[in-house]
Amino acid sequence: MSTAKSFARSACAVANSLDIVGDKWSLLVVRDLLHGKSTYGEIADSPEHIPTNILAERLRRLEAAGIIIGTPYQERPVRYAYTLTPKGRALGDVLLAFVRWGKQYIPGTVTMGSGPAGSGAATKASNAHRARKTQAK
């Protein structure tokens, strides 16, 4: 791990995590990348309709934080495909916790691309995560 540094508010892990991904949009961008989206246009087409100026800023911020990598796939105009780094993929556990909490406490919520609880990519990802943990033991 990196050495200790001075923090904006405190050394609290929750506060510092929120400083990076605690805004209204960043975790939704990570969600979309986990679900296989990779381009600016694909992410912009998400059901939440993130404003394009905010999407561009969040992509820059997530890249600066080492959560995503943008790789050019077209020269004129330059366009990028975005992928999650291992640090970014680790946020999948955070998103799964949000899915579980939302399904339990917010009636009518669904997982992305699915209907009832127990179906969809988030559940499949959760099952795959549990299988990896079991194999690691």
Structure commentary:
It is a single chain. The chain is mainly alpha-helical. The chain is 52% helix and 9% strand. The protein has seven helices and two strands. The protein has helices at 13-21, 26-34, 40-44, 52-64, 86-89, 91-105, 121-136; strands at 68-74, 79-84. Strands 1-2 form a two-stranded antiparallel sheet. A hairpin with a 4-residue loop joins β1 (68-74) and β2 (79-84). α6 (91-105) crosses α7. The two termini are 24 Å apart. Residues 115-137 have low confidence and may be disordered.
Structural class based on helices, strands and sheet pairing: mainly alpha
Question: What's the helix-strand series?
Answer: HHHHEEHHH
Q: What percentage of the residues does DSSP assign to strands (E)?
A: 5-15%
Number of helices: 7
Query: Mind summarizing the main beta sheet?
Result: 2 strands, antiparallel
Strand order of the largest sheet: 1-2
Report the strand count: 2
Please compute the radius of gyration using only Cα atoms.
Answer: 16 Å
Oligomer category? single chain
Mean pLDDT, as a whole number?
Answer: 85
Shape summary: globular
N-end to C-end Cα span: 24 Å
Which key terms come to mind for this protein?
single chain; 137 residues; mainly alpha; two-stranded antiparallel ribbon; 2 strands; disordered C terminus
Short description:
The chain has 137 residues and is mainly α. It has helices at 13-21, 26-34, 40-44, 52-64, 86-89, 91-105, 121-136, and strands at residues 68-74, 79-84.
Helix and strand topology:
Elements: H1 13-21, H2 26-34, H3 40-44, H4 52-64, E1 68-74, E2 79-84, H5 86-89, H6 91-105, H7 121-136
Antiparallel strand pairs: 1-2
